[in-house]
Amino acid sequence: MRTAGSMKFRTTGRRAVVGGAAGSVLLLASACGTAGSVGGGGSAGESGGYEYGASQDEINEAIADLEPVNIVYQVGTPSANSTTGARSLQFKDAVEEMSNGQIEVEIVWSMAVAGYPEAIDAVVDGRVDVSYHLVGYEPQRFPEATALATALANVEYSPMVGEMVAHGVASEIGWNSEPLLDRFEQEGVRPLAPFIANGAYSLNCNSQIATGDDLEGRQIRAGTSGQSQAVQDFGAVPTSMEFTEAFEAMQRGTIDCDLSPTAAKDISGVFQAAPHLSYTTEASWPRFPAGFFVGSSFDNLPVAYQQILFDSADLLVSGSAQGYVDSNKNHVEDIRSVDGTINEFDSAMQDELREIVDSQTETNIADGLVPEDIVESIAELEEKYRGIVTELGYEDGGDMETMDEWYDPSADWSDYSDAIFEEAGALDHRPGG
């Protein structure tokens, strides 16, 4: 196995196939023998199953003699009625439709079976079959993911296209990072989506801020160690707590600001106590890595069922991106409802933030957690996915402050979903190859 310091991320070289069979993302390791490999590519091979891109009739034939199964799918979103709940339902609906009802997906909301510290263990011991996990809550256990998420902050941000590009970049990085995939294998799990970018982080504060100097002395809730270090570098005081605790902490005066993505703000309701939103576009705070994982119960499924789960998991990546963009719009509306303010940080602050992130990435390179060429690789992938998103016809209709005027949450992102899956290299990890 090549070390992180010497590994170069490879690109797939494929162009997006728009409008193909229901997307696919996922799984296992690569066909060349990386973590958890069970074969790769779109072929059904000699192990049963069906070809990638097969018709529904062909899939029905492949599963005709299989017994029905129930899959427990654990998600972080609180309910089907929440902003991101509809995106969780997309995966359930796709699996059940593609399996002709033979795979029933039971959604467990709010990580109710096993919270974030236990999510991986719950997949390993079979309490759940598929689970979301914020691996950034365990930086010692998953140091590569945390380091990659810091480097991902170099992707230029905008409230829709920026999220779409970042999720594409993260997906390709995840599927082509042998150290990251090896780490998951060591922990006894396989990724359905190895590296979810999550949403860009922004600050909600109890008073308006716009410069780096405004941050000095503030008590700020931060998530990852990289975020905490960045907060400190601005002269503020980082506080560690789960995002769901931010609203009460703000009410008690324990913190002045909450650093979080808008989907977390939607769940916590922090805007009611911190109605002043400050965001960045030229540089970003370190992101918080996440993923979707399966364990031993997945291995016990027939290959065709594994493929159905795999081929539906493109929606886990595109659903994450679209869910965060949905949340951007909703948060703007929430801020307006309490007469709050929305502003971008000044360029001086963003220049300093970029320097902070670059310094952290240099340290991670020296520690062997990310490849030496990680910054160049991300820049190349950003150009690639920005081109794909543009080619598909997506564009921002304005900035964050006007999202409630131009963004349509009912838009169909299926072409984006297919393109990201096919470009990122997920097919190299498809089971039953």
Topology:
Blueprint: H1 56-63, E1 69-74, H2 85-98, E2 103-108, H3 119-124, E3 130-133, H4 143-151, H5 161-175, H6 178-186, E4 190-196, E5 202-205, E6 219-222, H7 225-233, E7 237-240, H8 246-252, E8 257-260, H9 262-268, E9 276-279, E10 290-294, H10 296-299, H11 303-312, H12 314-337, E11 341-344, H13 347-366, H14 374-391, H15 403-406, H16 414-424
Parallel strand pairs: 1-2, 1-3, 6-7, 6-8, 9-11
Antiparallel strand pairs: 3-10, 4-10, 5-8, 5-9
Structure description:
With 433 residues, this protein is α/β, with parallel strands linked by helices. The chain has a domain at 56-204 and 280-429: Bacterial extracellular solute-binding protein, family 7 (D-Maltodextrin-Binding Protein, domain 2, 3-Layer(aba) Sandwich), CATH 3.40.190.170. The protein has 16 helices and eleven strands. The chain has helices at residues 56-63, 85-98, 119-124, 143-151, 161-175, 178-186, 225-233, 246-252, 262-268, 296-299, 303-312, 314-337, 347-366, 374-391, 403-406, 414-424, and strands spanning 69-74, 103-108, 130-133, 190-196, 202-205, 219-222, 237-240, 257-260, 276-279, 290-294, 341-344. The strands form two sheets. It has a six-stranded mixed β-sheet with strand order 7-6-8-5-9-11, sandwiched between helices. Strand 6 (219-222), helix 7 and strand 7 (237-240) form a beta-alpha-beta unit. Helix 5 packs across helix 14, helix 5 (161-175) runs parallel beside helix 16 (414-424) and helix 12 (314-337) packs across helix 16 (414-424). The radius of gyration is 21 Å and the shape is globular. 57% of the residues are buried. Residues 1-40 have low confidence and may be disordered.
